[in-house]
Fold each of these.
Amino acid sequence: MERRMGEEEDQFLPEIVSKAIKLPGVKVDRMAFLAKTFNHLKGTELAQLVDQGPQSLYKTKDLIKVANRVVLNDMEKNTVFLLLQGCRLIL
C-alpha cells in the first residue's frame, strides 16, 4: 500500500524546505541534483521531473527509497571525511 503524506506533513514540508534554504551553506542546484539523482532519465522525462517534481513520475514509496539512498551516500562521504580528519589530527 502506498503511503501518502497527511495534510499536516504537507503543510510542514514547504516550511522546512524554506528554512533549510536560508541556512548558510545549504544551497542546492535543483536541476543538477535531480539530474544526478535520476541519471537514468533523459530528454522529456528529465524535463518533466524538473518542471513537475519527482512525484509526477514516481510513487511515494519509490521516492522514499531514493531519498534514503541519497542520505546514506552523503553520510558515508561525511563519515570518511571525518575519519580522515581524525587520523590527520592523531598523526
Amino acid sequence: MKTERVPITITKKMVQEYEEIFGEQSTLPPTFAMIFYRFIELPWRTTSPAILRKQYGTCEKELDIDETYQCQVILKVNKQRSNHVFYTQSLYLYDQHEEVCSKCVSELVTKSPLQKK
C-alpha cells in the first residue's frame, strides 16, 4: 500500500522547532523528514498498537530550507509469524527531478494486520 504524493516545503520554522529539541544542526539529518508524517494521511490503520522495532534514515541529497519535496509513504508486509505481522513503512522525499533525496524507514510489528481506512 502507498499514499498519494504530498508536496511539503521545508520552512525555517520547521527547522527552528526541530533544533529546539535536537540542538543546532549544520545540515538537516535524514531523519528530519519524520516530521512530515503530520502532513500525510496514511490510508491504513491498526486495530492493535504498532510497536516500533527499528528506525533509520538515509540521505541521497542534502535537504534545503524553502525547498518543496514530493513525499510518499509506502507500506510493505515483510512476514507474518504466529500472532504478529512485521511491516516496513518507508517515507520517501522526491525532488523536482523525481529523484529520491531522502528515505526514512520504520520497521513495525503488530498483533493484527493493518487495515485500509
Amino acid sequence: MSEPARVLHARLHLLDRQVVRESDDRLLCKVDDLEVRPGDRPYVTAILSGPLALGPRLGGLPGWLMTETDRLFRGRSGRGRTASR
C-alpha cells in the first residue's frame, strides 16, 4: 500500500532549498525552478537547478546574461533537471 502524496506549497517548501543526497547527506544543489504537470491537482514532475533554470526565473537582463553566459561557457542547451519518482 502506497502513502498518499504530500501536499507542499512550492515557494515555501521547495524553491531555493538544498537538494541533499540521502546516502551521504551531501549538498548537491539548490532548487531553482520546478516542472509541473497542470491539472485539477498540479504535480511536480521535475526539479530544475543551475543557471539555465534560474535565469528565466530572474527575468530581464540579469536573467538573460546568466543563461547566455552559462550556455557560452558550458556549451549545453538543457537545464539541470532531476526527475521525480
Amino acid sequence: MLKKNTYTILFISWVLIITVLSLFSFSEVDLDTGKLNIPYADKITHFIFYLVFGILGCFFVRERTKGQAELTKTSWFMLVGAIVYGIFIEALQYTMTTDRMAEFGDVLANTFGAFVGIGLVRWYFSKKRPLKWKF
C-alpha cells in the first residue's frame, strides 16, 4: 500500500510543510546565519519550494490516475494549482500573520519554481527518454 501511495504521501506532506513554514512566525526564533548573507535567499527558498511542489504534484497526479491523465493536462493543472496555492498562501500571510508579509516577488518566485519543476518533469518523460508517462 505504501509503495502505491508514495507520491501522494510525499506531495501532501510537502504541501503541509510549505503551509506551516509560510505561516509560522520566525520572529522569536534565533536564526543566526553568522557571516553568511545570501542575497534574495527568501526568493530562492520560494523557488525551490515550488519547484519541488511542481515535480511532486505531477507525480502525484500520475500515481492517482495510474498514468491515464495526459502529461500536458497534468502539467497545466499543476501549474495553475501551484500558482493559485502560492497566491492563497501569500494572502494568508497578509491577513493572518502579524510579522509575515505578502510580496509579489514571492508569487513570481513560486510561479517560476513551479514552471521549472513541471518543465523538468515534461523533459524527463519526453519521447527521448525511456521512461513513459503512462503505466
